[in-house]
Design a protein that fits this description.
single chain, alpha/beta, Rossmann fold, 2 domains, six-stranded mixed sheet, 24 strands, ABC_transporter-like_CS, sugar transport, membrane
């Protein structure tokens, strides 16, 4: 008898059949991979198990007993927890308060803050994470938030943990710690449902792999019985070819961006570099190295930034987003839900948000022009959405990322800063986004691409700047690209003499 079984699960959202008669089984104490393109239904299925959603039809069986958790608390009582791809915390509460929110310790009717901090530290210690538990969540990096969420799931003593893209914001070192932790959890008999687009992780960690496509179950196979090429074919129903950047074969244009001695106390210092038209400049580094912070400072989001930034030879006024926009800078942030999109708006409204002044006349948006423009970008980026008026919050993570990118394409920026362009995006959509970024470079844009995936940043970039602890640790020309060279600079290890 299977430990956990999904039986003919159906789930529909307005205009979208998210899951269609999905059935498969999971063994106790195994690490079971769940993979598929964005919109295939992976996260939806995990949320049904975790009580976030309720299936329209079908059911689940745990140890021979039917279960139907109607909320996350009910799921927790069944021993089920979920680490979400999109981080969900109370941003103004501390790490300790968020970790203990479901069961706050009390003494004589009052919150016992000492015990709460002790419990929070113990939960973080279980994953070898050293974060100040008194810090507000909104002061943590995305990677640190991900670690806190993993600690929260483990702190519930769950027997089944759904992990939705758990390493999408983690450094290599943090990912390795997570993998060691997963091995220990399996030894304790805990069952892990592991949702990821990173094929190497799935084949390293998992015992079985289930493939979903367009909301339907395609296959469930033991890992030894399949291979990455077969899984990709099952996922997308087509061949996905490795894309080779074409902008690398073109001559560079004039200098569009120059950064001189950019500093921000406690974040980074003395950052200087240039970026030319038609160039993709990669930024690599461990989480906390200061890459995203530099991007935010250039875009005017850092009130403490000092130094000089020039666009097309003209000095940019720092600490002003309005000035950055007027000078032709765009920023696609790493956290699309919190910073890249307005989730209460639909796809059309999000895409046109940066150019409303161009679409308006006498204070009114020319809707025909707006709809035509937005539909063009939705078609160009292959966004899976029922219509351009569908709520952006209802799209899969990958399709949300495409809408966030479309917003800046519509503005026709000269300099585009892209932070983690394919975080939480499947192999098919990743290839499409890489092709698009390359196309933009071929058209003469200057792109600064920040990525934690070394193969991605090496494939896209002409040069890579490596940051470490707020400083530029080094710069590599394309002929010197290798994961070994990048990791040495990221870790502060001197290269061996030739």
């Amino acid at each position: 008898m299977a430990y956990l079984a999904f039986q003919n699960i159906n789930k529909r959202f307005p205009g979208v059949q998210a899951l269609d008669q999905v059935s498969f089984e999971i063994e106790r104490g195994s690490c079971h991979a769940l993979i598929g393109e964005n919109g295939a239904g992976k996260s939806t299925l995990g949320k049904i198990l975790a009580g976030v959603y309720t299936a329209d039809e079908g059911g689940m069986v745990l140890e021979g007993q039917p279960i139907c958790p109607t909320n996350p608390l009910a799921a927790r009582h069944l021993g089920i927890a979920m680490v979400h791809q999109e981080l969900a915390f109370c941003p103004n509460l501390s790490v300790a308060e968020n970790l203990c929110l479901g069961d706050l310790p009390r003494h004589a009717g009052w919150l016992d803050k000492t015990k709460m901090r002790k419990l929070a530290r113990a939960m973080l210690a279980e994953i070898d994470c050293d974060i100040n538990v008194d810090l507000p969540i909104n002061e943590l990096s995305t990677g640190q938030e991900q670690l806190v969420q993993i600690a929260a799931a483990l702190g519930t003593k769950a027997q089944i943990i759904v992990m939705d893209e758990p390493t999408s914001s983690l450094s290599l070192h943090e990912s390795e710690n997570l993998f060691q932790l997963l091995a220990k959890l399996k030894e304790r008999g805990i069952t892990i449902i592991y949702v990821s687009h990173r094929m190497e992780e799935l084949f390293r960690l998992c015992d079985h792999i289930t493939v979903l496509r367009d909301g339907k179950h395609v296959s469930t196979e033991p890992i030894p019985a399949t291979n990455p090429e077969r899984v990709i074919q099952q996922m997308v129903g087509r061949e996905v070819k490795q894309y080779t950047s074409q902008h690398l074969h073109k001559d560079l244009g004039e200098e569009l961006l120059r950064v001189e001695n950019l500093c921000s106390p406690g974040k980074f210092k003395d950052i200087s570099f240039t970026l030319r038209a038609g160039e993709i400049l990669g930024f690599a580094g461990l989480i906390g190295a200061g890459r995203s912070e530099v991007a935010q400072a250039i875009f005017g989001l850092d009130e403490n930034a000092t130094g000089k930034v020039f666009i097309h030879g003209k000095e940019l006024a720092l600490r002003s987003v309005v000035a950055a926009l007027k000078m032709g800078i765009g920023l696609l942030p790493e956290d699309r839900k919190r910073l890249g999109l307005v989730l209460t708006m639909n796809c059309r409204e999000n895409t046109s948000l940066t150019i409303l002044n161009r679409l308006s006349k006498l204070g009114f948006v020319r809707q025909g022009q707006e709809r035509s423009m937005v539909q063009g970008y939705v078609d160009r980026l292959h966004v899976k959405t029922p219509s351009i008026d569908a709520p952006v919050a209802g799209l899969s993570g990958g399709n949300q990322q495409k809408i966030a990118l479309a917003k800046w394409l519509a503005r026709q920026c000269k300099v585009l800063i892209v932070d983690e362009p394919t975080r939480g995006v499947d192999v098919g959509a990743k290839a499409e986004i890489h092709h698009l970024l390359d196309e933009l470079a071929c058209q003469g844009l200057a792109l600064m691409v920040i990525s934690s995936e070394l193969p991605e940043v090496m494939n896209l970039s002409r040069r890579i700047i490596v940051m470490r602890q707020g400083d530029i640790a080094g710069e590599l020309a394309r002929q010197d690209f290798s994961q070994t060279n990048l990791m040495r600079l990221m870790a502060g290890i001197e290269a061996k003499a030739a």
